[in-house]
Amino acid sequence: MASSTLHIDLDAIASNWKALDAKSGPATQTAAVVKADSYGLGADRVARTLLRQGAKTFFVALAEEGAKLRQAIGDGPEIFILSGHMAGDRDMLDDLDLTPVLNSAEQVKRHMEVSPATPFGVQLDTGMNRLGLEDADWRALAPMLLEKSPKLVMSHLSCSDEVHMGMNERQLAEFTRMTDGTGLRRSLSATGGLIYGKEYHFDLVRPGIGLYGGMPFAEARPVVTLSLPVIQTRMVEVGETVGYGNTWEAKRRSHVATISAGYADGISRRLSNNAQLWAGDTPCPLIGRVSMDLITVDITDLDGTPEELDLLNTHQGVDAVADLIGTIGYEVLTSLGARYERRYSETLA
Ligand SMILES: *Cc1c(COP(=O)(O)O)cnc(C)c1O
Questions:
Q1: What is the largest CA-CA distance in the chain?
Q2: Cα dist. 128→27, 65, 81, 131, 174 in Å?
Q3: Does the domain formed by 224-345 have CATH 2.40.37.10?
Q4: Where in the numbering of this chain does the Alanine racemase C-terminal domain appear (predicted)?
């Protein structure tokens, strides 16, 4: 029996990066966000692919992620740590040339005490109230920080994929006000802001989800296919039920396939009776409840029995699955990533 496999199209990731790089234009550098193991797809492989395309700057969430990434990509490319300089990070930051994005007065103090010679970036809060120096802290610390030439000053948009709130414009104005005249390399936008408008690009953009085929980058090439092997099939007579809680009842004599994957593999139980799996180009309804390790599928309308069925493919991407269960593509991707055999395809240029 085949194993459950997450196919990852590295060419599609490369092409998405290039398309976003083209949108951001020649005056703006396009970095790549590879936190959470590249949204579950494997930061080492993704980063090496993007290096070949010309990416020179990467962002991860944690120093530990940065350390692993440095081992995978070698010396040279910049690696920024979004969580900043946390207690105990010093050796990793110093030894592996990782650049923390300092987020608070406390982190600034820690960094200047323990790693005064290690380069750093600064994050400013422009309204999201999650990470970053507040205006008053920035004003107090800026003279000292500017003297040490931060590698980057950045902020993050809270509503970059929602155009109606005026929040982007307010954050843009705040970021501009806080950083004009500093002469620093500036970055405000992730995928959403990059698409939203040129004035959000500044010197560097930081796309993540768009590289991996997710919204809000609507033209993204799909990146993942999730194929789940069929373990067993049976005929179910009219009136019989399938799965826990008897939530599906056969209205016709039905051919039912049981496939090897479930909510323990990051496939939400909320997909019960509420999704399609694909035999190539043919959709087949998921029937009954998703259990811990198994899913049942109505394959009556297929000729024969497929070896595997796909939950994610070019017909049904991460955002389509996310819509079914009231979440976002980011969560679907990151909950799947680590649990399957990963198979990469890449045409080495
Ligand atoms: C995750 C993250 C990004 C990338 O965001 P996408 O929406 O995936 O493009 C960029 N910047 C920061 C600060 C982030 O936390």
A1: 77
A2: 27, 24, 19, 8, 11
A3: yes
A4: 223-345
Q: What is the spatial distance between Cα 252 and Cα 246, in angstroms, rounded to a whole number?
A: 16
Residue 177 contacts by C-beta under 8 Å, 6 or more apart in sequence?
none
Element holding 344 (H helix, E strand):
strand 341-345
pTM (predicted TM-score): 0.95
Q: Give the pLDDT confidence score for residue 160 in this predicted structure.
A: 79
Does the bond joining 216 to the residue before it have cis omega, within 30 degrees of 0? yes
Residue ranges of the binding site for substrate: 130, 292
What are the average pLDDT values for consecutive 10-residue runs of the chain, which has 349 residues?
A: 88 98 96 97 98 98 98 98 96 97 97 96 95 97 97 94 82 98 98 95 98 96 97 98 97 98 95 97 98 97 97 96 96 87 87
* Atom number, ligand 1, closest to the C-alpha of residue 212: 8
Give residue 159's pLDDT.
87
Indicate the domain borders of the chain.
10-212, 224-345
Chosen CATH of 10-212 out of 3.40.50.720, 3.10.580.10, 3.40.50.300, 3.20.20.10:
3.20.20.10
Cα(285) to centroid of ligand 1, in Å? 34
| Six-digit token string for 164 | 């109606």
Sign of the dihedral through C-alpha 60, 62, 63, 67: negative
Beta 121-123 vs 153-154: how paired, if at all? parallel
Clarify whether 196 is annotated catalytic: no
- The answer to whether the beta carbons of residues 35 and 296 sit under 8 Å apart is no
On whether the CB atoms of residues 309 and 278 are closer than 8 A, the answer is yes
Tell me the pairing of strands 241-242 and 248-249.
Answer: antiparallel
| Antiparallel, parallel or unpaired: β 204-205 and 224-236 | unpaired
Return the structure tokens found at 140: 């107090």
Nearest CA to 257 among 286, 306, 311, 297?
297
Q: Is 68 a catalytic residue?
A: no
